[in-house]
C-alpha cells in the first residue's frame, strides 16, 4: 500500500481520537461530556474507523493486483491480469477484526475508564479547575505557558518543560497549591489539551 495513504489514514485516526477526547472532556454541539460515555456516541467514531479500515484494505488489494499485472506486455493483458487478481483477492473482510480497529476501540475504552475513575475528583475540584482554565501562568515558573500539558488526574495545566524537570526522578505531586490530587505525577498522567491551548493563545493575543 502507498506509504503516504497509510500515513494519512493514521493521521485521520489520531484526529478522530483527539476529537473524541475533547468531546468527552468538554462536550460537543451542546451535548454534555457525559453523553459521550454513551455507546451510540462512541459508535459514530468507530463507524468512521471501520470505513478507514475498508479503504486501507481496498488499497492493499489494488496494490497487490497491480504488482501481479505489471508483468503484462500489453494493456489488454494488464487489464485482464489486474481484474483476475482483484477477483482472487476479493475475500470477506471484517474491519472490526483488524489491529487498527481493535487498537482504536481499546483506546476509547481506556479513555472512558479514566474519565469515569476521575469523575468524582474532577467534580470536587470543579472551582479549582475553572480557575486553572483561565490561568496562563505555569505554577512552577510563574511564567506564561507556551507548550502546556494537562494532568489527567486533577485537570491542572503546566508548562511541559518545567513539569518534566519537576517530576524527573519521581516522587513529585501536583505543584498547584491546594490540589486535592495527592498521587505522584507520572509521564502517563500528562496529556495534550488542544482546547486549552486555543484558550491560552486567545488570551495571549488579547493581552498583546
From TrEMBL:
Pathway: Protein modification; protein sumoylation
Organism whose genome encodes this protein: Glossina austeni
Secretion signal span: none
UniProt-recorded Gene Ontology molecular function terms: SUMO ligase activity; zinc ion binding
Protein name: E3 SUMO-protein ligase NSE2
Residues that span the membrane, as ranges: none
Lineage summary: Eukaryota, Metazoa, Ecdysozoa, Arthropoda, Hexapoda
PANTHER family linked to this entry: E3 SUMO-PROTEIN LIGASE NSE2
Keywords linked to the UniProt accession: Metal-binding, Nucleus, Transferase, Ubl conjugation pathway, Zinc, Zinc-finger
A Pfam family this chain is assigned to: zf-Nse
Family under the similarity heading: Belongs to the NSE2 family.
Subcellular location: Nucleus
Cellular component aspect of the GO annotation: nucleus; Smc5-Smc6 complex
Annotated CDD domains: SPL-RING_NSE2
Annotated ranges, domain SP-RING-type: 123-208
InterPro entries recorded: Nse2(Mms21), Znf_MIZ, Znf_RING/FYVE/PHD
GO biological process: double-strand break repair via homologous recombination; protein sumoylation
Amino acid at each position: 500500500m502507498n506509504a503516504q495513504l497509510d500515513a494519512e489514514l493514521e493521521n485521520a485516526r489520531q484526529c478522530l481520537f483527539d476529537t473524541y477526547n475533547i468531546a468527552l472532556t468538554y462536550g460537543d454541539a451542546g451535548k454534555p461530556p457525559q453523553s459521550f460515555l454513551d455507546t451510540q456516541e462512541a459508535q459514530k467514531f468507530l463507524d468512521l474507523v471501520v470505513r478507514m479500515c475498508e479503504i486501507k484494505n481496498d488499497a492493499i488489494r489494488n496494490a497487490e493486483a497491480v504488482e501481479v499485472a505489471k508483468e503484462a506486455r500489453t494493456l489488454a493483458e494488464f487489464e485482464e491480469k489486474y481484474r483476475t487478481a482483484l477477483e482472487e483477492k476479493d475475500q470477506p473482510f471484517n474491519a472490526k477484526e483488524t489491529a487498527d480497529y481493535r487498537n482504536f476501540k481499546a483506546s476509547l475504552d481506556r479513555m472512558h475508564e479514566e474519565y469515569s475513575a476521575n469523575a468524582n475528583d474532577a467534580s470536587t475540584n470543579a472551582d479549582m479547575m475553572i480557575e486553572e482554565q483561565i490561568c496562563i501562568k505555569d505554577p512552577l515558573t510563574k511564567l506564561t505557558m507556551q507548550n502546556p500539558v494537562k494532568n489527567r488526574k486533577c485537570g491542572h495545566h503546566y508548562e511541559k518543560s518545567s513539569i518534566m524537570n519537576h517530576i524527573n526522578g519521581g516522587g513529585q505531586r501536583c505543584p498547584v497549591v491546594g490540589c486535592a490530587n495527592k498521587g505522584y505525577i507520572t509521564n502517563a498522567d500528562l496529556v495534550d489539551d488542544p482546547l486549552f491551548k486555543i484558550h491560552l493563545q486567545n488570551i495571549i493575543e488579547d493581552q498583546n
